[in-house]
Design goal:
Blueprint lengths: L2 H15 L9 E6 L4 E2 L2 E4 L4 E5 L9 E2 L19 E3 L5 E6 L9 E6 L5 H11 L7 H12 L2
Parallel strand pairs: 1-4, 3-8
Antiparallel strand pairs: 1-2, 4-6, 5-7, 7-8
Helix pairs in contact: 2-3
Length: about 150
Amino acid sequence: MKPSTHFSLFVALFLALSPVIVSAQETHEINAQARVFAPDILYVQPGDAIQWVNMAVGGHDSVSIEGLIPEGAEPWRSQIGENFGITPTVEGVYAYVCEPHIGFGMMGVIVVGKPVNIDASMAFAQEKLQGPYRRIIGKLLKVQQDAKK
C-alpha cells in the first residue's frame, strides 16, 4: 500500500472510532390549553429551543413581559393563533403572557440555565406590575424558592 492509502485508512478508522459529538440542545414544547400554558414553569438550558404549540385553538399568543427577561435577552411577541418558537441563550428568568387571556391568568415563566435575575425580576414585578400582570409574582416566587434549595 502507498503511504497516502495508509493515511486515508488511519483517518477513516480514527473517525469511525471517535465518539460522536452530539449537540446537547433539546426542544421543549409549551402547550397552549384553554386558558393556561402547560407547563407554566419550564426549566431549560441555554441554546435549547422552546416551541409554543396549539396556539390556533383559542387564539393565543406569547409575549415577553418587559422588565422580566434577562438583560441582553431578546424580547418577543408572537402572532395570535400561530405556533411560535425561540432559542434563548442568555441565562435567567423569562416571564411571558397570552395577551388575549391575561385576565384568566394565562402566563408562564421560562428559566434558562440559572435564574440569575430572579431577585431583580421579583423586585420589578412587585414594584411595577399592575392588574392581572401581578399574577406572575406567584410563579416567580416558586422559581425563587426553588433556586434556594
